[in-house]
Amino acid sequence: MRFDIITVLPGLLESPFAHSILQRAQKKGLTEIYVHNLREYSANKHKNVDDYPYGGGSGMVMSIDPFAACIEKLKGERDYDEVIFMTPDGETLNQTTANHLSGKKNLIILCGHYKGIDQRIRDIFVTREISIGDYVLSGGELPAAVLVDAIVRLLPGVLSDETSALSDSFQGELLDAPVYTRPAEWRGIKVPDILLSGNQAKIDEWRYDQALERTRQRRPDLLK
Ligand code: ADE
Fold first, then answer.
1. Residue with the nearest Cα to atom 4 of ligand 1?
2. Which of 18, 39, 117, 184 could be 47's S-S partner, Cβ–Cβ 3.0 to 4.6 Å?
3. Domains and CATH numbers, the chain
């Protein structure tokens, strides 16, 4: 699966993709992540990518031309399943969306900045608008990294234990059960006996009950 991310701050996206699971997935050839510097697509001699808003008001608006040049170049090289714009007014990202997008081949992700992007980019090029939550960040780069992470860990072969993505919170509508590791007792606080029992059927049952209880307490909306 291939991602092409378009941003004015490519440096912001270096670290998230250079470690751990995302790095390994790229090394194994399971995903390719390309970060494109929007400024390189500015025809302007100052490499500007934004301009004053028509109608006045504060803040700058990202211009249509650099985005159009970059998107059209990419689309001339291959077909894309979606052109996604990261924006707080998009649909809220959830596991269902991540699962769905993990079945795609090529995605373009646009990162906005300043006051927003010219509406015509959204109207003409964008096929999907995604928010990572009801709060406003300084730009779309961190949201893009969140989206890519949520998708890539679902690709076959990315996680070493193939079943572990399936038991994640949200994957089966329940939150995860609590987990413990050694020592079995720390400052007088013990790991639940059942986890030391060796009885896998009982452990599975306990985990299910814990997951259900945690979901009931924290996210009753998921049980509806
Ligand atoms: N850009 C700024 N805030 C955002 C958010 N919450 N989700 C997606 N993109 C954003």
1. 88
2. 39
3. 2-152 (3.40.1280.10), 169-223 (1.10.1270.20)
Whole-angstrom distance, CA of residue 114 vs CA of residue 137: 10
Taking CA atoms only, the protein residue closest to ligand 1 atom 10 is: 87
- Ligand 1: atom nearest CA of 135 is 6
Atom of ligand 1 nearest to the CA of 133: 6
**75-85 CB burial, b ≥16 within 10 A, e <16:** eeeeebbbbbb
Is the whole model's pTM more than 0.85, yes or no? Answer: yes
pLDDT at 163: 56
Among protein residues, the one with the nearest Cα to ligand 1's atom 7 is 131
pLDDT in tens, 71-100: 999 999 999 999 999 999 999 999 999 999
